[in-house]
Amino acid sequence: MHGRVKLKSTAQQEEEKRKEREKKLKIYVTARDAVFAKRKNGMLDDEALLLTQQLLSSNPDVATLWNYRREILLHLETIREEVDVQKMYEDELSFLESCLKVNPKSYGSWHHRGWVSARLPRPDWTRELGLCDRCLSLDDRNFHCWDYRRMVVKMSGVPVDQELQFTDRLIGSNFSNYSSWHYRSTLLPLLHPESPEPPSPCHQTHHSPPTSPQSHSHRVCEEQLLKEYELVQNAFFTDPNDQSAWFYYRWLLGRAEREEMISCVFVSREEERVAVAFSRPVNVSSSGLMLVLDGQPQRVEWRSVHPSFKHSPVCICELPPGTISDITNEHNLTVHWTEKHTHRDCALYTGRSVSWCRDSATDQELFRSELSVEKTSVLQSELQSCNQLLELEPQNKWCLLTIILLMRALDPLGYERETLSHFQTLKEVDPMRGAYYGDLCSKFMIENTILKMEYAEVRVFSLSDKNLTTLCHLDQLLLVTHINLSSNQLLRLPPQFAMLQCLEVLEADNNAIENLEGLYHLPKLEDVSLKNNKLSRLSDLQPLASCPKLTRLDLRRNPVTQLVNIESELAELLPSVTDLLL
Amino acid sequence: MAADNLPSVFDVIILGTGLSESVIAAACSRVGQRVLHVDRRSYYAGNWASFTFNGLLSWIEEYKQAGPSDEAAQEKVEEGEEALALSSLDTSITNVEVFCYASEEPEEVEEGVKDGAAAAWSVPQTPDSEGEVERCLLESSSVEEEEAVLAGDEVAQASGPDAGAEETQPEGEVPPQAYETQGEWQDEQQASPSPAESQPEPKKQITYTKIVKEGRRFNIDLVSKLMYSRGSLVDLLIKSNVSRYAEFKNVTRILTYRNGKVEQVPCSRADVFGSKQLTVVEKRMLMKFLTFCLDFEQHPEEYQDFSVHSFWDFLLTKKLTENLRHFILHSIAMVTPDVCTVEGLRATQHFLRCLGRYGNTPFLFPLYGLGEIPQCFCRMCAVFGGIYCLRQSVRCLVLDKESGKCKAVIDSNGQRISCSHFVVEDGYIGLDQRKNVDSRQISRAVLITDRSILPSDSEQQISLVTVPPVEPGSPVVRMVELCSSTMTCMPGTYLVHLTCSSSGSAREDLAPVVSRLFCIPVSPGEESKEGEEGSEVPSVLWALYFNMRDTSAVDRSSYDLPSNVHVCTSPDAALGSDHAIKLAEAVFRQLLPEEEFCPPAPNPEDIIYDGEGPQGEGPGFEEADPAEALPSQGEVESAERQEEAEDAGETGDVAKQETVAVAENEPRPASEE
């Protein structure tokens, strides 16, 4: 009957397809062998160019072929006129375009395109930008294209404001795009840099050098910042579960950089030891530390508090024996951090066995460094917006977390209770990240306790029964003599614990501690209480042997007490301990 | 004409080329039924058609003139048979009124316009007797317009009786292909803004003469519909591979009329994010509500208590601002406030599910107008052997007295053709066969305007505008504004379709909305006035009003017809075409309960041609496509044209060229291989 269509059966079609594939494979393999043979013979001619082109157009992901192709092109470049070279590379670009259609995420093709564009005698960057825009409109997260585009922008010098508009456009069409937000974060400081701030009076400016360009390069002027807050709020109110906007928001809220400085110098006559705390970990061997005692540079050996650290925020050194041991002498010490052109003085008066000089942690900046010191009113209004969102989305973890950070920036102690309750909600709505929230909460609790301690001007740090899962900021506890960490969820006393150079009494009962690595060479440690922990092997107690003054040790309700001969073993390990409770 | 050469036996005869009929034709032909598809009009798609400007003028003329009266000719039937006459009148279009506001150029007065007054020429309705007001010239011998024919009717030329008519292009007409290419060129010109194009000297006046002269650039739909991206029409186009015959553009924005202003409705995530009119809290509330609607069935606790209440009441409890309630009700759900909660939620859900499939709105629009779609299905039917005759009708059905079934038809040439099924458009059914003529009406207006209702960065916006009742009791009006890149109007103009369910004549229903949203010049060519907000309101250059009968709600049992005669109702007032597609599928299920409805058309390389064994060797990719060797097989698609509608949205222009190329390939002789 007229027009009745007969169709091939599925088996027929399959068979045809199989044959076709076989044939294709044969052609491909033959061509590949031919190409490899040619390369071996060092033949760099048009035929090889053609063959590699055929192969690459069906499979653009063979790096060897691209390499060969570059060899050929480099050779041809030397023997051709410039006009022809231009033509040759232009052909290469249009060939690459067809490869990108086969696989828009081919490493080889994009890399080769970058290479060709850079060699093109008269590159047409507008065209390249157009290509990128087309690619990104098809897939706005194609990072190969983003990379290539960055190169094109750099080479062609596209004005920054135009690029910012480009991110506007991309974010407008789909704001779930880290690439666009991140790109924005690199452009804004260039286009709207923060106006240089007069140095705040609370810092001893004389030992800080003129602010380096880097320290301000990440900040954006306030006017623009407000616009950005608005933009990003639109995104996270529209879709609060999309992370990209929240991350950008975190960037906007900023991470103020702490000034690099010596935060504390501590000197003890008895041990003839100097301990120095820095605002960031320093490499003891290469950061140019110098000790001047009464005007005389001293030859001392600086070391970190624990052998496992090359970098440490606390360094110590031993003075030559007898230099400061006489209690009737007054001494002036100066520690120089030559690398950063900064120093700190410390006077050891007559009759004093120890002395220190430092900045108080209550100087606001310390723990607000998570967020920069923006104007409080701005942060306050941001907090209001987030609270508004939280009302609509009480379960949203990004919102909760951001609120916590804002509260910390505004008033860490005042908001402590709310912060804790938000952490509780966070752990409930996002149990997968429970441990992360636990650690973060521990960190904030420690910060708060340090602040409280500073306000009270005591050297006692007490933080018991607060669900601590981790210890941090231990460099801030350099001067602490008594610490109470009982009834928390600590698993260990980490090596950083060795920074507590003045520690005399440690209470850490009712934790899950199984490792005492950090009780390392603590010169003043006398009394350690570790009741009800998870210490199970004698070797776990080994570090205690390095603490010369340890006299009292309470190990009750630890598995280690069940070991045979434990008492005698301990007596041998810790001869100084006179008061041992098992 | 070769009408008498028609075979005398078919499986299915279909009268009328509207969307439902065309889909049935394609579906039947696809599964091997012998299909004869005829239409008494000179163009395809019936009331679904799209016209050039001049074509539309002819259409208007047709409905102005009185046709020959319905003569009950005595048909020759055999013993045991009786004849059932069909109507030769089309009464589906009424209240046609035309207004021209564009200025005339003095030397061009011969365009049929006498006076230059505001209503340059209107066609007042002769209100003598209802149902008899408009007559259609059946089998009009003077064919003025042929643009509406599609590439697919080349097959009709080969086999149908109208072979001669198509080949001689009327004088002065640009061949369709040349015209299309020209259109693309224009489009590209606009895409890359050359200073001359983008900045026309102080707004060139568009005169009536210019519109007539550029009339071919218009493709004016009689029914204004959009395609839901996940509606049954799009699904069918993809499933059946018919999508390869057409191209689509995304509707770019949803607008609404509120507080005397046209505003954009934020409906996608990107819209909500970018919206300047919503506060951040509103954004959250809107997104939250829409996210809920997307899978509202999963949260019965949210709406259960409202199952007997209206959707509006439900919205009121949802902490939504007035702003948002308006957007959701009128522009997203697009329902009236009194529909029940679940229906409203379902409508919202459908809208949202369609969103983002092809773009930022849930809708597609076919380039060159909606009339393309029925033609695409006709083409599919022709590819599989269906025979097409335009300007050919069926005078009467021959019924078997015993079984009461239709066994044959007698066509307008008097030829008797047997069939097992007869499918007919509602408009051909005489009054005698209607038990219940209680049909509804659709009010339609078509405007040509000089600028967009809401100017934006891009001039090429396709907008859906929802207009809630402008006064209490007036109808909800739906407006679609098409830009020139949809290939439905000339550059510099916009084509605006207004639709609502009638309560009076089209002009009574729609003129109040037109006068609020547009400037109607007092004298032709007057510059548009300043709007209240200081923004310029578009001026109407030309306006057409008419009513169309809507029989979509009429039940099959309302027709007194044999059981193997199937009626396809006229287009409905809804935005989507789901009704027509569901109807087509239902009819097909009655016709051929065992067969699949529109299975995918095979790829050309999988077709086995007569005298050819299974192609065991398998054609290599360098070898010639066997399709080219056998062009006489009718339509053969080139293998590359397999993109789904998805691609069509993006690479419209390129694809169109390919479509043209396919048509050109056709007459290539076999020897060329």
Automatic annotation (TrEMBL), chain A:
<protein>
    <recommendedName>
        <fullName>Geranylgeranyl transferase type-2 subunit alpha</fullName>
        <ecNumber>2.5.1.60</ecNumber>
    </recommendedName>
</protein>
<comment type="function">
    <text>Catalyzes the transfer of a geranyl-geranyl moiety from geranyl-geranyl pyrophosphate to cysteines occuring in specific C-terminal amino acid sequences.</text>
</comment>
<dbReference type="Pfam" id="PF01239">
    <property type="entry name" value="PPTA"/>
</dbReference>
<dbReference type="InterPro" id="IPR001611">
    <property type="entry name" value="Leu-rich_rpt"/>
</dbReference>
<keyword id="KW-0637">Prenyltransferase</keyword>
<dbReference type="GO" id="GO:0004663">
    <property type="term" value="F:Rab geranylgeranyltransferase activity"/>
</dbReference>
<dbReference type="InterPro" id="IPR036254">
    <property type="entry name" value="RabGGT_asu_insert-dom_sf"/>
</dbReference>
<dbReference type="InterPro" id="IPR009087">
    <property type="entry name" value="RabGGT_asu_insert-domain"/>
</dbReference>
<comment type="similarity">
    <text>Belongs to the protein prenyltransferase subunit alpha family.</text>
</comment>
<keyword id="KW-0808">Transferase</keyword>
<dbReference type="Pfam" id="PF14580">
    <property type="entry name" value="LRR_9"/>
</dbReference>
<keyword id="KW-0677">Repeat</keyword>
<keyword id="KW-0597">Phosphoprotein</keyword>
<feature type="region of interest" description="Disordered">
    <location>
        <begin position="194"/>
        <end position="217"/>
    </location>
</feature>
<feature type="domain" description="Rab geranylgeranyltransferase alpha subunit insert-domain">
    <location>
        <begin position="262"/>
        <end position="361"/>
    </location>
</feature>
<dbReference type="GO" id="GO:0008270">
    <property type="term" value="F:zinc ion binding"/>
</dbReference>
<dbReference type="InterPro" id="IPR002088">
    <property type="entry name" value="Prenyl_trans_a"/>
</dbReference>
<dbReference type="GO" id="GO:0097354">
    <property type="term" value="P:prenylation"/>
</dbReference>
<dbReference type="Pfam" id="PF07711">
    <property type="entry name" value="RabGGT_insert"/>
</dbReference>
<comment type="function">
    <text>Catalyzes the transfer of a geranylgeranyl moiety from geranylgeranyl diphosphate to both cysteines of Rab proteins with the C-terminal sequence -XXCC, -XCXC and -CCXX, such as RAB1A, RAB3A, RAB5A and RAB7A.</text>
</comment>
<dbReference type="InterPro" id="IPR032675">
    <property type="entry name" value="LRR_dom_sf"/>
</dbReference>
<dbReference type="GO" id="GO:0005968">
    <property type="term" value="C:Rab-protein geranylgeranyltransferase complex"/>
</dbReference>
TrEMBL record, chain B:
<feature type="compositionally biased region" description="Low complexity">
    <location>
        <begin position="188"/>
        <end position="199"/>
    </location>
</feature>
<dbReference type="GO" id="GO:0005829">
    <property type="term" value="C:cytosol"/>
</dbReference>
<dbReference type="GO" id="GO:0005096">
    <property type="term" value="F:GTPase activator activity"/>
</dbReference>
<keyword id="KW-0343">GTPase activation</keyword>
<dbReference type="GO" id="GO:0016192">
    <property type="term" value="P:vesicle-mediated transport"/>
</dbReference>
<dbReference type="GO" id="GO:0005634">
    <property type="term" value="C:nucleus"/>
</dbReference>
<dbReference type="Pfam" id="PF22603">
    <property type="entry name" value="RAE1_2_domI_C"/>
</dbReference>
<feature type="region of interest" description="Disordered">
    <location>
        <begin position="122"/>
        <end position="206"/>
    </location>
</feature>
<dbReference type="GO" id="GO:0007264">
    <property type="term" value="P:small GTPase-mediated signal transduction"/>
</dbReference>
<keyword id="KW-0963">Cytoplasm</keyword>
<dbReference type="GO" id="GO:0005968">
    <property type="term" value="C:Rab-protein geranylgeranyltransferase complex"/>
</dbReference>
<dbReference type="InterPro" id="IPR054420">
    <property type="entry name" value="RAE1_2_domI_C"/>
</dbReference>
<feature type="domain" description="RAE1/2">
    <location>
        <begin position="442"/>
        <end position="572"/>
    </location>
</feature>
<dbReference type="GO" id="GO:0005092">
    <property type="term" value="F:GDP-dissociation inhibitor activity"/>
</dbReference>
<protein>
    <recommendedName>
        <fullName>RAE1/2 domain-containing protein</fullName>
    </recommendedName>
</protein>
<dbReference type="Pfam" id="PF00996">
    <property type="entry name" value="GDI"/>
</dbReference>
<comment type="similarity">
    <text>Belongs to the Rab GDI family.</text>
</comment>
<dbReference type="InterPro" id="IPR018203">
    <property type="entry name" value="GDP_dissociation_inhibitor"/>
</dbReference>
<dbReference type="InterPro" id="IPR001738">
    <property type="entry name" value="Rab_escort"/>
</dbReference>
<dbReference type="GO" id="GO:0006886">
    <property type="term" value="P:intracellular protein transport"/>
</dbReference>
<feature type="region of interest" description="Disordered">
    <location>
        <begin position="601"/>
        <end position="673"/>
    </location>
</feature>
<dbReference type="InterPro" id="IPR036188">
    <property type="entry name" value="FAD/NAD-bd_sf"/>
</dbReference>
